[in-house]
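Supplementary Note 3. Input sequence used for the single-chain structure prediction.
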Amino acid sequence: MFLKRWFFQRSQPADPIAKRLVLSELRSALLAQYTNADGLDSKLKQLLGSASLILSIVTTLQITTGIQKAGWPYFVGLAVVLLLYAVLITVIMRALRPMTYYAPIPPKWDEIARYYFGKDEDAALDQLISTYIEALEKNDVPVNHKSRMINVASALLVSIVIVLLLMGVVGLGGPRLFPVP
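The predicted structure, written as discrete structure tokens, is reproduced below.
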């Protein structure tokens, strides 16, 4: 809403050419926002793939090298890793669920006719600029949500790697924090 108020306070009355220029920039911003959302989805999928790969490779290496004989600390670590992995999958799947992105022009004939037909060019441009600004502001919510979920998923992935490394150190006879009887 801030952008909308700022634009209309500063631009009244404005040249239709200036309004077309603003509209062109808003279209570019909306396209960039849609592209950014797609990019965030790709990052989430890559995080999920990386976590799956790391977990499967390290677990396979640990099982084949006999690290599981490390005793209960190994199994506690394994339980922690599996719990973190389950949370990671949940976070990523929630972030990847379909979200509603708003379009500046409603896909309903009645609304298009009411807002744009029968109006002069200046009023139609004002309305279109206003709806682009609203769409950008509304679309910030799901894009920011996806961005936050990437941060959470990244922290979970780092936690998984750290626990797996600790499991490896303990299992290979490293520092014995928990002596095995």
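The mean pLDDT is 81. The radius of gyration is 26 Å.
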